[in-house]
Amino acid sequence: MTVKAGSLEEYSLLERWGEPGQAPPALLLESCVHAAHWLVEASSSFTLSCDLLAIDYWRSMEGLRPGERYCVLLLAVERRESQMTLAAHHWRVKPGGELPDAGIRPDRTEAAGLFSVAFAPLEERHIPEDRACLWRELRP
To answer: What is the CA radius of gyration of the chain?
Structure first.
């Protein structure tokens, strides 16, 4: 499970055009794809990374408002030799609210989105040892 909190820049991106101060939903989708990168990298012992291949469906997340967070849980639905399909579940957490239990396992038919990633060798983009070191720093 990963937690996405909006940055001050994300909250103010659309205000200049009269839109409400909130992180745009597209940035929340991008956060899910970045979480998939970490999932693939860590689960492959830092030999693979991934690229977004396809979005099968996506129920738009309402943009984050200041102080809010999204908890995102990605579940592998299907894995092949060169790609993986992930179901994304997310929960909005209001300021001061409790995060969902890390052991939660929702029904995959209730997923907010389904997307696929294609595997790529990690060493073509990053130094695997550097990514492994970052992973150790990110894990609680």
So the answer is: 16
Distance, in Å, from the CA atom of 29 to the CA atom of 18, rounded to the nearest integer, reads 23
At 12-62, the pLDDT tens digits run: 666 667 766 666 667 778 888 889 998 999 999 999 999 999 999 888 667
Question: Taking the model in full, what pTM does it have?
Answer: 0.76
Residue type, 64: L
Spatial distance between the Cα atoms of 42 and 35, rounded to a whole number of angstroms = 11
Dist. CA 69–CA 8, nearest whole Å: 13
User: Strand pairing of 83-93 and 2-5?
Assistant: unpaired
- Write out the H or E segment, with its range, that includes residue 3: strand 2-5
Render pLDDT for 47-60 as a digit per residue (tens, 0 to 9): 999 999 999 988 86
3-class secondary structure per residue, 84-138: EEEEEEEEEECCCCCCCCCCCCCCHHHCCEEEEEEEEEHHHCCCHHHHHHHHHHH
CA angle 22, 114, 46 (to 5 degrees): 90
